[in-house]
Every structure is written in C-alpha cells, then in structure tokens.
Amino acid sequence: MPEAAARVPLITIGGFLGAGKTTLVNQILGQAGGQRIVVFVNDFGAINIDYDLVQTRDADRISLKNGCVCCSLNDDFVESVVGFVKQTESPDAIVVEASGIADPRALDSSLAMLETAGMVRSDAKLYVLDAANFQDLEFDDAETIIDHAAVNDIVLMNKSDLVQPEARRKINDLLAEAAPYSQVVETVNCDIAIDMVFGAAPVSSKITKSSGNELQTPQHAKTYQSWSCEFDGLLDREKFEVFAMSLPGKCLRAKGILRFSDAPEEPQLFNLVGYRATVEPKPRTEASALIRFVVIGLAETFDAATLEASFAQVVSEKRNGASD
Amino acid sequence: MSSQGDSRLFHGGPIVTMDDGAPAPEAVVTKADKIHFVGLLEEARTLARPDVTEVDLAGRTLLPGLIDAHSHILWAAKTRGAPVVDVRAETVPTYKALLAKIRRRVAAAKPGEHLIFFGLDAQLHPDMEQPTRAQLDELAPDNPIGIQTSNCHALFMNSRGFEACGINERTETPTGSIIERDETGRPSGKIAEAITWRALEVFYDAWGDDRLSEEFHASIGDFIQNGITTVTEHLYLPHYKAYYLSALKQGLPMPRVAAYQQAVTADMQVEKLNIGDDRLWMAGVKIHADGSPFIGNIWLSEPYLETAITLERMDLKPGHTGSLNYPQDYFEKMARTYFGQGWRMSIHTQGDRTIDMVLDLVEDILTKTPRADHRFRLEHCALMRKDQIERAQKLGVLCSFFINHITHWGAPIEDALFGPERAAHYMPAGSALDAGMRISLHADTPMTDPSCLELMKAATTRLAGDGRCLGESERLDSLSALKAVTIDAAYQIGMEDRLGSIKAGKHADLVILERNPLETPHLELANIGIAATYLAGECVWTNA
Fold first, then answer.
1. One domain for residues A172 and A252
2. Which positions fall inside the CobW C-terminal domain (chain A) (predicted)?
C-alpha cells in the first residue's frame, strides 16, 4: 500500500429482509455517474441489473460497463477488499450490503481491521427501515430494528408513502430518542440522493464561488440542498473544530479538503456523515492549494446562508475566490 | 455428532500443540475421549485402528481447545439471557434512549411481570444519571424492575423491585454489600456488590426453570462456537449444580467447568465436587476483595481523576480512593479459613491498595504455614503495580487479566478515570510475563462476550475502541497470548496435566482454526474463523 494513497471510503447498508436494501444497491449501481464503485451483496441472486449495463457475469461477480463491480459477500470478504484496494486504480468507494437479520455489528471487526490497516475509511453507515411494516411489529422485533438502526449514521425511513403522517411522526419521535446519533430521511423506493450516499465530491474545479444548489435527483428533485465553496486560503483549526461540531443536525453530510493556518503545507481531508466526523492527512497527489468544502442536507432544515456565514468565521486568510 | 468410542486421525495442516516436547507434529490421533498419539503421519497411520475417521485439516490449524480462566457460563445465561433487555451502550447509545426503551418495555409488560435491563454504563452513556427509586417508580409503577450496570456490580430498582427482593428500611446491609438509603433508612434505589447478585436471583426465579435451561443451552453454544472447551464458574453457588448435571444428562456439549465457589462468610461448606471425567469440579474459592473500577468500588493509593464521569455520572467525591468490599479482618478470616481447608484461592482485586493488602496476607499465611504449589490467584488486576507483580511472582501468586477492559472502556479509563500513566500499565499483562509469571487472560462473560481470539487480539494490540493504544510496553507476543488461553490457563485452574496442550494421554479437547494464530497479524486475530470444536473426542460444533 503506497503511503500516498487515500483510504477508500466504505459504506455499509443494513436492514431487514424486504426493507429495500437491494433497491438501494440497484440505485447506487445505476447512478454511479462515473464513480467506480464496488458493491458486496449478501443476496447476489436478487441483484437485478439492466442487461445492457453488464459487461461480464460470473458465479459471484458482475462487472458493469460503467466500471462498477458487484460481488457476492462471503468468507473472503476481507481478502476481496484488499484485492480491490491494491489494484493500480483502486475503486472510488466500496459498498457492503449486510445480511438481513444478522447483527449489524457482525462486520465490525472485519471493517475495523481494514480501517486500521489503512485500506478503507469507514464512511456512511446506512440503515433501511420498512416504515410500512414497522408499526405492526411485536416488541422484540421492533426493538431489534431500533437497536440496529441506532448504530447507523443515516436511517432511510423507507416506504414512507405507505404510512399515514401521524404514524410517520411517531416513528420519527421514537428514533429521535432511541437513535440520537442517527439522521432519519424519509424515502420512497430508497430514493435518497446519490450524493447523500457518497458525499458530493468536493473536487470539481468548476466551482470557484460559493453556491447553494438544489440537488437534481430523478424522483426527489427538491428534497436536498447543498452549499459549497472553493478558494485559496487557510482556516483556523480551533474555530473549524467548533464549526464542525455544530454541523450535525443542520446537515447530513459534509466533505472537504482543508488547510489550517498552523500547518499550511499539510492539507487535510474532512468527512462528516451524520454525527461522525473524521479528519486525516490528504495524500499529496495534486499541486492545488485550494480549500474546498461542501455541505449537503435536507431542504426543510437546510440553511445555506447561515452555514456560509459560520464558515466565513473559520477562514483566517483568503487570497482569492470568495465565500461571501 | 459421533459416539464416544470413535477414533480420529488429524493431519494435513499446522498443528500447534502448546507442548514444548512436540512443537509441530504431522498428525494427532484421538481414541475415544483422549489424545492417543502425537507425531509423524506414517506412524499415526500404523497405530490408528482400521475404522479411524481421518480429518483432513486442509491447511487449517489444529490447536488444543481454548480455555477462558475466568468466566461465568451459567451465570451468563441468568444475567444476559432473554427476557433480560440489553441496554448496553453499543446499541442504546444514551441514558435518554435507555429510559425510552424501559418505557416501551414496561408498556408491553404484563401486570406484575419482573423486568431486568442490563448494561447501564457511567463510562459509555454520556448523559447518564443515577436512577432513583422515585424515578423508576414513575416509569414502572406496577412491575418490579431492575437496571443492572454493565460491570454487573450494581443494580437500581423501583419499589416493586425492592418489595420483591425483601429489601427495606429494616434490612441490615450485609457485610461486603452496599444499600444506598435516604435519611430515613429507606433504600433509595441503588444496591451494589454481593447483595446485587442475591437480589437478581429473585428475578431469575420468577422467570422459571425452563427459561434458565433454554438460556444455559444458548450460553453453552456461545462458548463452544468460539472453540472454548473449558470455562470457569467464578461465582459458583451450590444450587447451580443441578443445571450442569441436567445439561450433561441431556448430552449438551457443556465445556468443562472449573467452579470457584463464592464466599461471603467464613462458615460456608465447600463441596468437593468432581463430576464425570473432569466435566465439573470444585477448583477453589472466590472472594471479592474489592469491586468494580467503573462504579468506584476499588481501593487505590492514588485517587480517581476528577472528571464529569467520576464526579457526576459515577457520583464519586473528589479525591475518591475507594475501599475494600469487606472490613479487612472479615476478609482475612474468610481467606485464611478456606486456604486453611486446602482450597485454592481466587481473589477479585482491582485497586493497587487492595493488592497490597492481599499480598501481605498471602505472605503472612505462607510464612506461618508454607504450602508448595498453592496457585493463589488474583483476578483482573487492573491497577497492579510493577513492584507488586515482582512480589507476587516471588510468592507464587498468579494473575489472570481482564484484558477486554482495554477494548471496551480504554478511552474512559485513560481520559476519565485514571490518566495516561496508570492507563499505560492498566491490566499489566506484559510486566507480569516479563517477571516470569504464568498468566491467563479472560473475558469475564457475561461482562464481555466469550472469545479467546478477541482476548489474544486485545493483549497483543492493547487497542481501545477509538483506536488508541493503551501502553505499548504491556503488549504480549502472539505465543504468550496463546499460552494465556491454553496451557497457562490450564495451569491456573490446576489442570495442566490434563488440559491446555495436545499431548498423548490428555483429554481430546481440540479446535480447528481457519488460520494459524501464531502467523496471523495481531489485528486480524479476532477475525480467524472457528472451523470445528472437539470436546472429549467428539465433534461438538462445525461451521460447515
């Protein structure tokens, strides 16, 4: 593993049988948009990929023309991940669809191992909850789902169209108490914006000014909003930490390449999903000294103007570009 | 499953015997429930009976069955098995979420139904408050409820709970226990140490025998599936015997159980148990010299740190240095009595001052009545100092380390309880090894889940949940860690001549691992798959 390579973000998808995990996986594969994604699925037979997209198909691996790969999740999981990460061109992201009823923590030790070995970075943990089915469950089954949901960053309250508003509110209230570190997103057919799954890439050199964008997704055009900026300058580390701590609740995801005034030559990668944030040194693969930052949230709670103003306070030095 | 008379020939993969005399043989033959031969394959084939079953390891590794030297296999079923509701911070991340879960469970309860919630944690539930009796009465007016801390040493109950357990203002606090009371003497919610476990028995009894048998069956499975063929019952009580006997009668693959009877007084009868061919025996007597570091019940020479966790969530006073569970003379009388009866002693010690006291006592006893091979054990040993390790080694005192404290509570141990200097030598397994001690490692199930491979990972990496390393100098090498869950664990329970290594004549307790732990990076140890477990010559579990 060359020292300069960035760890590959690894996303997990949990949820009971029938909640909609496979729908989500199919969406991810269909909307990869140029990203090379490797997906591990438990129920390989259920993956339904448009024949036109398939390049090759083996007993436990489907390669797509868009560069994505779908593999069966088996005992060789760790070795398979290592194999992908060590390829000359390592994937942009790895997605693991965990088993239907298994303990959501069953994969934890494998993931921790890959993470400590510098191969992957634990990114979003997604959980798909079947809202239509949830209200009819007995105590034990409902609690199992609640316990599982609570260890995830983002809970998709799926099939929300099949549930009355009052029942939706009850589930939201329950999760707010039982899963305080999880963000809940109501979905239909798991129609979460793909940027929410992977975090928008803050690397587009096109944006030189801050912008508040509505994300265009096929079904949920106005559900999400984002704010981003790019400029040449430096940030105050302590102020940034305070700012980052204030983000959960205001957004679902944030991502950035940062430079701090106390170490201007050491760019850092910042990632926030739900309530979990990581900052790690960015491998120096490009010369650009620009700071880039993007925040994505649900439209109803998103306040781009306030975010912009708060972020401006963090900037200790700016040479060009603008975030105001 | 196969019948008792079977013979097996294992070959085709690495064989880690843990026996210095035969470090890497080609083959192992078992005959009925014993190991018959260890050596060259050709010789094994000549010796084996014509009807021998050949087990091709196919590159996987054969080891002696694993041993957890301090666990509670039956008590784990009582403590954690259904209908106990798991509220540990792993899945119930806050105190608020915990209360919400209790509310939902109470809403689904039958009137009068006994309810226990396991896993309240001052270190890991960030908004934790000490629940009061009045608050719990409001939550559950019609059901006896108890909330047990994840360290097992304390219980919070409502009025119906106190009534069910018969604990009231007239109840005298038993020596070695704590009952917190209001100014009128009425129990105010929290009880701790020995009385906790007595009170919980009332709840377990209310759930009936079928429940316990079922959960004991599940607990047995948890150990066997992890390749653990010998365990201990470190708080054995005489009425437990019926459950082990019943499990054996039903033919369940119950690991061998070394029982350590719990002493709370000096006048207890300890039964000289020995059931079957080393299936259940009385290994010694256990006494709590102190309690849990996570509720402040350990005796220290230097106080706890003063942090939000110690002062608010644990409700300790500034400068808290804890104390012994029993008055010193009361404890000493118990220890002298049972040692005097010839029992091997196993003493729960966490704080360094407690350890000073126990080592003083051992020295005094051994000076007056020397005994070779006494195998006096200290359990857990969180804050044992280097000078104490050297002293223990000279006295022949053995340490068993609860190394999973580091993986589960490493961050608060360093940041909130004891600071970096003490954290760097917390559970000082490396120092004990350097001093030449034969140590063991344990998971203390039900407090943490049974897995000797996790113990090995914890001891070789000392990585906390947040990725920090607590004390690089205390890390073990893989072979030493493996000894601590095989041959040296067998030594500590007094069975090194029959268990803990692959050697002709020993019990045929074996485990097949997907990878050789001695050639696996430390970080990956806990991921090694268990392919099969053999107990007394029988294959009792496979992953096939």
1. no
2. 224-315
- Of the pLDDT bands very low, low, confident and very high (cuts 50, 70, 90), residue A50 is confident
Q: Is residue A3 part of a domain?
A: no
Residue A89 lies inside a defined structural domain of this protein: yes
Residue B91 domain-assigned (yes or no): yes
Do A110 and B523 lie within an 8 Å CB cutoff? no
Residues A255 and A162 in one domain: no
CB B117 within 8 A of CB B147: yes
B527 and A177 within 8 Å at the Cβ level: the answer is no
Closest Cβ–Cβ partner in A105, A139, A181 for B90: A105
Residue with more model confidence, A87 or B245 = B245
Question: Do residues A18 and A132 share a domain?
Answer: yes
Q: Are residues B81 and B156 in the same domain?
A: yes
**Domain stop point among B149, B178, B207:** B207
Query: Could you tell me the pLDDT band of residue B353, with boundaries at 50, 70 and 90?
Result: very high
Query: In total, how many domains does chain A have?
Result: 2
* Shared-domain flag, residues A160 and A228: no
Decide if the complex's ipTM is over 0.95.
no
Between chains, do A116 and B104 touch, taking CB under 8 Å as contact? no
Across the A:B interface, residue pairs with CB atoms under 8 Å apart total: 48
Distance to chain B for A116, nearest Cα, Å:
8
Is B203's pLDDT higher than 90?
yes
Residues A134 and A273 both lie in one domain: no
Contact residues, chain B, for A183 at CB < 8 Å: none
The pTM of this model reads 0.88
Residue A26: domain span: 8-192
B91 interfaces chain A, CB cutoff of 8 Å: yes
Q: Which residue of B has its CA nearest to A147?
A: B91
Question: Where does a domain end: B207, B238, B262?
Answer: B207
Q: What integer pLDDT is reported at residue B340 of this predicted model?
A: 96
* Angle subtended by helix axes A304-314 and A237-246, to nearest 10: 160
Q: Is B341 on the interface with A (CB under 8 A)?
A: no
pLDDT of residue B180 exceeding 50: yes
* Mutation for B interface: A81, A103, A109, most B CBs within 10 A: A109
Q: Do B92 and A117 touch (CB under 8 A)?
A: no
Question: Which one has a higher pLDDT value, A19 or B329?
Answer: B329
The least confident of A185-189, A221-225, B113-117, B313-317 is: A221-225
The beta-carbon neighbor of A113 closest among B90, B97, B524 is B524
Q: Of A192, A216, A248, which residue constitutes the final position of a domain? A: A192
**Cβ <8 Å between B93 and A143:** no
The shortest CB-CB distance from A113 to any of B86, B97, B523 is to B523
Q: Does B543 touch chain A (CB under 8 A)?
A: no
Question: Are residues B79 and B201 both part of a single domain?
Answer: yes
Nearest CA-CA distance, residue B377 and chain A, Å:
32
Expressed as residue numbers, the domain containing B3 is 1-65+500-544
Please answer yes or no on whether A109 and B90 come within 8 Å at the CB atom. Answer: no
Q: What is the CATH number of the domain that holds A132?
A: 3.40.50.300
Q: What is the mean pLDDT of residues B288-315?
A: 96
CA distance A149 to chain B (A): 8
SS3 sequence, chain A? CCCCCCCEEEEEEEECCCCCHHHHHHHHHHCCCCCCEEEEECCHHHCCCCHHHEEEECCCEEEECCCCEEEECCCCHHHHHHHHHCCCCCCCEEEEECCCCCCCCCCHHHHHHHHHCCCEEEEEEEEEEEHHHHCCCCHHHHHHHHHHHHCCCEEEEECHHHCCHHHHHHHHHHHHHHCCCCEEEECCCCCCCHHHHHCCCCCCCCCCECEEEECCCCCCCCCEEEEEEEEEEEECHHHHHHHHHHCECCECEEEEEEEECCEEEEEEEEEEECCEEEEEECCCCCCCCEEEEEEEEECCCCCHHHHHHHHHHHEEEEEEEECC
Query: How close does chain B come to A276, measured CA to CA in Å?
Result: 12
